[in-house]
Specification:
It is found in: Cytoplasm. There is one protein chain. By secondary structure, the protein is of the alpha+beta class. Helix 2 crosses helix 3, helix 3 packs antiparallel against helix 9 and helix 5 packs across helix 9. The protein has two domains: about 100 residues, Roll (Ubiquitin-like (UB roll)), CATH 3.10.20; about 240 residues, Creatine Kinase, Chain A, domain 2, CATH 3.30.590.10. It is globular and about 60 Å long. The chain has nine helices and 14 strands. Helices cover about 30% and strands about 25% of the residues. A hairpin with an 8-residue loop joins strand 1 and strand 2. The longest helix has 25 residues. Strands 6, 7, 8, 9, 10, 11, 12, 13 and 14 form a nine-stranded mixed sheet that branches. The structure holds adenosine-5'-diphosphate and manganese (II) ion (3 copies). The site of adenosine-5'-diphosphate (ADP) has 13 residues, from strand 6, strand 9 and strand 11.
């Protein structure tokens, strides 16, 4: 028997942006346990805005687990928060009710800033560093500093060791700003891995005394880019059938549902989606081939391949909840399929 350190992770009840919480319990297993072997566990919901003081127990239901290479015999256990009965999802548990489909693939591009002493890492005590230009995918101490790259590299290894589908990293447009990408087949798979990757980054940064700033526009109304979490998506139909006619119907459905998308694309997005800094205005919908100023960017490969492949919704921001973002995209896609099957039935 081996004693495993199980880090149970969950999203708390803070709005508009939940925080990741985690606590450890030790359990003995013959070998690395299956998900089904991991027991439910409780926590004090009154400390996480998930219960009133009087009756404060909430339950943690393991839904996915990953090896944690930073700890001897460590396991990261992503959980859903349940009511004390253990079967009713808590109101803060969005994952329980989202639309999921293994054949819809998501690639999230998480942008964020490193923060130290209340400003982006590498910013001078007063004023600003040299304007944006050399930082994006940059190299050299003046452009990217020293610690930042070390953290980013360590984070990449932590994710790969955990079996997370990490797809890449790059230094971003603003100084102190970086990006990593996570890919997954299905809303829950992609979003679980994004939340755990966010957790690993925050935990890693503790020892460097650096914070991760996920706000979408931490430098406000200045000439510094904000942070997005572009959502790239493809259904089986988009990958294998596609076509211009279907694509245009799909874009019309996105246009009809601007408000539903923006509602789950992350808080304070009006600060970021201004029409400047590679964004489209928040109240408009546009799409364009290779257009980084559009709501949805159509990759060259998509247009050149008979309107087949994946699309990039550029509106979700760095604090968005990937569960709800993926689910809303699926909902809009499903509305088009429904319309098509209804008109077939009528014909
Ligand atoms: P850019 O910065 O040019 O927008 P990135 O290379 O950072 O692009 O991100 C591209 C994203 O697209 C990655 O997250 C990748 O996983 C995702 N992606 C690639 N192919 C597909 C696909 N078929 N379906 C969904 N996502 C995809
Ligand atoms: Mn990118
Ligand atoms: Mn980017
Ligand atoms: Mn992108």
């Amino acid at each position: 028997m081996t004693k495993y350190k199980l880090e149970y992770l969950w999203l708390d009840g803070y709005t508009p942006t939940p925080n990741l919480r985690g606590k450890t319990q030790i359990k003995e297993f013959d070998s690395f346990p299956t998900l089904e072997q991991l027991p439910m566990w409780g926590f004090d919901g009154s400390s996480t805005k998930q219960a009133e003081g009087g009756s404060s127990d909430c339950m943690l239901k393991p839904v996915r687990h990953f090896p944690d290479s930073t700890r001897k015999n460590g396991i990261l256990v992503m959980c859903e928060v349940m009511m004390p009965d253990g079967v009713t999802p808590h109101a803060s548990n969005k994952r329980a009710t989202i639309i999921d489909d293994d054949n819809t693939w998501f690639g999230f591009e998480q942008e964020y800033f490193f923060y130290k002493d209340g400003r982006p890492l590498g910013f001078p005590t007063a004023g600003y560093p040299a304007p944006q230009g050399p930082y994006y995918c940059g190299a050299g101490y003046s452009n990217v500093g020293s610690i930042a790259r070390q953290i980013v590299e360590e984070h990449l290894d932590l994710c790969l060791d955990a079996g997370i589908n990490h797809e890449g990293i790059n230094a971003e447009v603003a100084k102190g700003q970086w990006e990593f990408q996570i890919f997954g087949k299905g809303s829950k798979k992609a979003a679980d891995e994004m939340w755990v990757a966010r957790y690993l980054l925050q935990r890693l940064c503790e020892k460097y005394e650096i914070d991760v700033e996920y706000h979408c526009k931490p430098l406000g109304d200045t000439d510094w880019n904000g942070s997005g979490m572009h959502a790239n998506f493809s259904t089986e139909h988009l990958r294998t059938v596609g076509g211009k006619e279907y694509f245009e119907k799909l874009m019309a459905a996105f246009k009809d549902n601007i408000a539903d998308h923006i509602a789950v694309y992350g808080p304070d997005n009006h600060m970021r989606l201004t029409g400047k800094h590679e964004t489209a205005a928040i109240d408009q919908f546009s799409y364009g081939i290779a257009d980084r100023g559009a709501s949805i960017r159509v990759p060259h490969s998509f247009a050149n391949n008979g309107y087949k492949g994946y699309l990039e919704d550029r509106r979700p921001n760095s604090q968005g909840d990937p569960y709800q973002i993926a689910s809303q995209i699926l909902k809009t896609i499903a509305s088009v399929q429904m319309e098509a099957s209804m008109s077939e039935a009528a014909a």
